[in-house]
What we know:
Layout: H1 2-35, H2 38-61, H3 68-78, H4 86-100, H5 114-125, H6 127-130, E1 132-134, H7 138-141, E2 157-159, H8 163-166, H9 171-176, H10 188-200, H11 206-225, H12 234-239, H13 243-250, H14 262-282, H15 289-325
Antiparallel strand pairs: 1-2
Amino acid sequence: xxxxxxxxxxxxxQQVMRNVLFALSPLCLASIYLYGWRFLAVLSVVVASGLLxxxxxxxxxxxxxxxxxxVSCVLFALSLPPGVPLWIAAVGIAFGIVFGKMVFGGFGKxxxxxxxxxxxxxxxxxxVPLTARFLLPQSTLNWFPAGFGTWxxxxxxxxxxxxxxxxxxxxxxxxxxxxxxSFGETSALLIVLGGxxxxxxxxxxxxxxxxxxLGFLVLQTILWxxxxxxxxxxxxxxxxxxFLLGAFFMVTDPISSSQSTDIGRWVYGxxxxxxxxxIRVFANWAEGVTFAILLVxxxxxxxxxxxxxxKAKRKAKAKAQAGGAA
Length: 326
């Protein structure tokens, strides 16, 4: 009976992964439109490497290859800059799948999000290629077919600050995604629409997303109003970088996030938002999302354990009081 129940849960989680893939498809199309067909090459290499890594580990330990590997691969590909060498993309996702998921026992048992594990590994190991920003020529963005008619929309990359750090982009550019950045992090509008879809389909919990955004805006506003030179306008900071992609699609991962109680979800999300601001403002990394997600992933099981116990104690106390009154 326990085995049947576990199988049903796994099937439900696989349906969640399909909904996430559907929500990410507009971001994939936008990546081709903005940067060219090279995104498809990066995505193909990432999927092939990720699938092979999971298959080899699953075969060795008699586990099953699950559809979640495709979600991890797509998210990782979208987090990469357009000029990333293909071999780095392949090595990164292999590390994320093996050490972010399979060493913990496979799907449903991993502590860390595999895609963000892969992102952290390549960011730390290959800093220069991962911080190269491609400048989008406006002439290719205003007319169809734009990136659909080229391999890569520009031949040169520059290692430079992001619009988040410089404040060089307008709000409209941040919404549409016509700014330099990684493949799938630039269009805030598409991220929010895709995020709304997975919340509607219950593939992501809105409380984690709301807690993330609330925690982010509160601390960002305090630091901005306090005159911290590294703290930008809260709304601009929210739309810049990869925070929204992380808040909707990564920190809400039903496996590595806190899911047992509502209060745990709120605290988990708020901690992610707070840590992102702290790392962005006070650390040397302009983008703090990667490390913030890994940090809150470590707290997920602790929150589940603590808040479940707290809930159980409250129920037991209420029951005892009701029995005493009777």
